[in-house]
């Protein structure tokens, strides 16, 4: 008899929660135990039952569900949800879609997720709770710090550095060797040719500064 797959809980019943449930269904190595949400509005996500709000976390842990994932697209909310899951006693495993491609020597930290058709080049470093979304390209030697989000179709060319909590919009392209500071926002479709300060918002081709402010502590 084959051993039973480990059980995992998904926190978040919204759009990104649906994408994570889809990843776990495709993966085959996990048993989806259910979904919880801070304010449940649906009964199920892709057929997986919503078990209630986060008040159920202790009983789910006692029932033997040891792993969970904070399936929330917003960087700050994802990090906060991960902290609650960790405090409750859940492990935060790496989630890797079977249709993603990883080069040699890629490092993936706790809670990182790589969605379908994303490609990560050799010796890239993907930090804790980073989200590399559908079809994104993270080239060789890139470094993505905690809680960053690389949106669908974005391209990070070689040696790019992305600061903690930064957001790289859908379809944006970042030139080789560029650093994007913590908490910065890169608009969809932008072409980033030079370093972006922490907390800044840039957009356009080439990307220009729209807003500059200090990132939260």
TrEMBL record:
Membership in a protein family: Belongs to the transferase hexapeptide repeat family.
Keyword match GTP-binding: no
InterPro entries hit by this protein: AcTrfase_PglD-like (IPR020019), Hexapep (IPR001451), Hexapep_transf_CS (IPR018357), PglD_N (IPR041561), Trans_hexapeptide_repeat (IPR050179), Trimer_LpxA-like_sf (IPR011004)
UniProt protein name: Hexapeptide transferase
Sites where the protein binds acetyl-CoA: 149
Entry-linked PANTHER family: ACETYLTRANSFERASE, UDP-N-ACETYLBACILLOSAMINE N-ACETYLTRANSFERASE
Domain of life: Bacteria
PROSITE patterns named in the record: HEXAPEP_TRANSFERASES
Domain spans labelled PglD N-terminal: 8-84
Positions of substrate binding: 73
NCBIfam families membership: NeuD_NnaD (TIGR03570)
Provenance organism: Neoroseomonas eburnea
SUPFAM superfamilies assigned to the protein according to its UniProt record, in alphabetical order: Trimeric LpxA-like enzymes (SSF51161)
